[in-house]
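Anyone up for a design puzzle?
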């Protein structure tokens, strides 16, 4: 008779996501995952097949996490330039302690893995597509509200602000908050 699970895949996946977020893919061992997830190697492989598949699921879980916990102000109906400005400035001032130094799991993964693994690269690009499309919608709203010059190329600006957001994630690990605010201010000024 097959064993029944005594754990929630969703809960252990969230724990795995946090381990990968802190240590990266290569820096995370199965032993570390066992300890943090509270399940043994057999259960990890039974539920997720292998470390890579667990990691891909963790990247998807991270996308859900940021949609729920981070990007809500930009996903609100009618969010425009004011919301983008507030969001970017809050991204510098609202982080505390270890969270500030972790950066973004996807940006960290892109730096670590690049395009070495096509499945991981696909998940990274899905995340970036989500961010770019979210920003594009915000800029469309801003244009409609008259918050941006009529001739603004919002397609190019959406790509630019995707890069700005990823840059903030990397620079936020070491750069002073004042410098980050200057960076954000200049990025916002160029579109006004």
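Challenge accepted. My sequence:
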């Amino acid at each position: 008779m097959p064993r029944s699970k005594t754990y929630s895949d969703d809960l252990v996946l969230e724990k795995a996501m946090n381990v990968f977020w802190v240590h990266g893919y290569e820096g995370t061992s199965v032993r570390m995952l066992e300890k943090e997830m509270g399940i043994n190697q057999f259960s990890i492989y039974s539920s997720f097949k292998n470390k890579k598949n667990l990691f891909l699921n963790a990247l998807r879980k991270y996308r859900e996490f940021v949609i729920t916990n981070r990007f809500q102000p930009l996903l609100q109906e009618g969010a425009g330039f004011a919301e983008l400005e507030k969001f970017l400035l809050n991204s510098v001032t609202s982080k505390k302690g270890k969270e500030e130094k972790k950066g973004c799991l996807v940006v960290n993964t892109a730096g670590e893995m690049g395009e070495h693994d096509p499945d991981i690269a696909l998940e990274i690009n899905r995340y970036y597509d989500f961010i770019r499309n979210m920003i594009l919608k915000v800029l469309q709203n801003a244009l409609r509200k008259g918050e941006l010059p009529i001739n603004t190329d919002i397609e190019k600006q959406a790509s630019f602000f995707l890069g700005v957001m990823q840059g903030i994630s990397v620079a936020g690990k070491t750069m002073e908050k004042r410098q980050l605010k200057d960076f954000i201010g200049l990025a916002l000024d160029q579109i006004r």
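A detail worth pointing out: Residues 70-192 form a domain with the Tetracycline Repressor; domain 2 fold (CATH 1.10.357.10).
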